[in-house]
Design goal:
With about 200 residues, the chain is an all-alpha fold. It has one domain (about 1-180). About 70% of the residues lie in helices and about 0% in strands. The protein has seven helices and no strands. The protein has helices at about 1-15, 20-35, 50-65, 70-95, 100-135, 140-160, 160-180. The protein is globular, with a radius of gyration of 18 Å. The termini are far apart.
């Protein structure tokens, strides 16, 4: 059963990377240093004092940067691939007692996938906010993302199974919303286009 908790922990932390990249990395580093969780072989560096300092500084800079007008949108273009990489790495670091092939396969699919879906949702949310409010509501979006990253990270470390369930629900909602996004109405054969789900 320990492998199940490891996977749930990894999924939670990977999804948190979709909100903020360095918050879950900092959370894992603190938890590892406190002896609350074990890291898989080769990832012990995440729990080192040097990594803790680096993650702390990076987290502070990342959180502050997203409150700078227009810089937040520019950061999203960089954050999307970075979130996938970070989610994959954290997932691999969380899974213990598993062969490297299985570990990295699960990390890439579940970890990278969860981070990608959540990050896509936040990018679209910020884009919608920018387009409809001229960026005036982006402050609130950034706050929600920071809270989401912190809350998801803490929940993943304390209650990994509950965090994984919450992440799966969130990913399902984002995917459902992406599939049913509003599209231009294109009548086909004289029939009106079906109603689309609005954000």
């Amino acid at each position: 059963m320990e492998w199940l908790f490891s996977i749930c922990l990894g999924i939670g932390l990977a999804a948190a990377c979709g909100f903020r990249i360095f918050v879950p990395m900092l959370g894992m580093s603190i938890a590892a240093q406190a002896g609350h969780l074990d890291l898989s072989p080769g990832f012990e560096w995440i729990g080192s004092p040097a990594a803790l300092v680096c993650f702390s500084v990076a987290t502070a800079l990342e959180v502050i940067a997203y409150y700078v007008p227009w810089l937040d949108n520019a950061l999203d273009s960089i954050a999307t691939p970075a979130a996938v990489v970070a989610g994959t790495v954290l997932m691999a670091a969380a899974i213990t007692d598993m062969s490297p092939l299985m570990r990295w396969s699960i990390a890439l699919i579940a970890g990278g996938g969860a981070a990608a879906v959540v990050q896509t949702g936040t990018v679209l949310l910020r884009g919608t906010s920018t387009a409809t409010t001229g960026g005036s509501a982006n402050f609130m979006v950034s706050t929600v993302e920071a809270v989401g990253a912190t809350g998801t990270t803490l929940l993943a470390i304390v209650l990994p199974v509950l965090a994984a369930i919450g992440v799966l629900a969130l990913v399902g909602y984002v995917l459902y919303w992406l599939v049913n996004r509003r599209a231009p109405a294109l009548p086909i054969l004289g029939k009106p286009a079906p109603k689309q789900l609005l954000l």
